[in-house]
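pipeline/complex-builder :: batch 7 item 3
reading input block
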Amino acid sequence: MAQPTFSTHVGMVDILPGEVEKWQALERIIHEEAKKFNFEEIRTPIMEQTELIARGVGQLTDIVSKEMFAFERGEDQYVLRPECTAPVARAFVEHHLEQRGGTQNLYYIGPMFRAEKPQKGRQRQFHQFGAEVIGADDPAADVDIIALMMSIYDRVGISNTSLKINSVGDPESRKAYTKALKNYFRPHLDDMSDISKERFEKNPLRILDSKEEEDQPFIEDAPVITDFLTEETEAHYARVKELLNELEIPFEEDPYLVRGLDYYTRTAFELISPDLGAQDALGGGGRYDLLIEEIGGQHTPAVGFAAGMERLFIACEELGIDLVEEEMLDVYIVTLGEEARTWGLKHLPKLRKAGLSASMDYIGRSIKAQMKDADRENARHVIIVGGNELAEGKFTLRNMKASEEDSYTFEDILNKLTN
RNA sequence: GAGCUCGUAGCUCAGCUGGUUAGAGCGCCAGGUUGUGGCCCUGGAGGCCGUGGGUUCAAAUCCCAUCGGGCUCCCCA
């Protein structure tokens, strides 16, 4: 097709009418479930200070080192948010939300931006929903966050997922583990991939994430972090697992689960779907006990999750799940002639005030075209207005589903349709 | 950032190893029904075959480049 003058940027897509409905349906589910869990919505700006993301998410992460949409304007550095936990944490600190008392149970829905090469389930502007419990150290918070996430997928009808969990440790456990890992990998390094060699220096934990074939045998026998947890963290992790069992949320322990954002501590989890292909993570999250301090707040333990909406829709498609109910138009007024059009325009508001959805033709089409339009709009009823009707004060009301019609005064029509 | 693959009407696609005005189904518009939708019939609009260059008497068809999509790697949602 001919090149249009303008198009969206790579990896950014329009959500068109006909598609928006499923977004609305999902958003409704998220709002409803969040409400049941007593979470409050928070909306933060699309742009943040670059430094917040750099410090929050971590300088060494892929997100910060190569995937940010960032620019300067005068003295200020802007970045399109690549995720929403750091922004929510920022808002928490900035507005002293701890003063509201108790834990802050917050959720969000919105677009995020990462400058990656797009492919299925990966866009440059994508949408996440997520939730955070800020101010709770207890495993109950970890588990309630997971439960909220799972209950949204439940409502949607995606059930063939697997929940993987791990504990990535507190700083002390992490230090001991990193040391053990380096000791373990050092003698094998020559036989391992270049990526792993690089990670050995920068962030040995990430070696475990390697998909390179030559690394697999070494990873298999690598020490696992769960053996290096401090007593306290181990107890925390054990309690999380215990509670998940109590709630009958099935999970799988994955001692090699390492998440890509630096702020995670202790509990980490990921929800995987077999229906997604290469990008198989529906969502994930974990604890980030140090993040709020890192960005200038008081020490505040917190836990949260984020999930991708596009990926959820892909899974729906694979599973044949349709979130959208058929949309119906209550009334379509078909008019013949100028006088009838005026009548129609005057009576639309009366129908709408009565709570009915109502529409009519604007462009003077033939009755046939108007009927066709009414059909396309999935109209339940059509009111036909022509010279005869105007003269008699009685209008033809056609039930489109039953294909039956009769004449009534407008008042009778209104009564009939609102009962 | 790397590899593979694809790119023809609004949509889904057909066009064999290059050969006259580029096709189908769906959708859209109109007519058959001078006041009635969904079914059916008829007609119409809509494509310089992603873009640029090359080979050739001749290119949607072959070659190169480029842009875009898909898949994989990396990483993540």
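note: The radius of gyration of chain A is 28 Å.
queue -> next item
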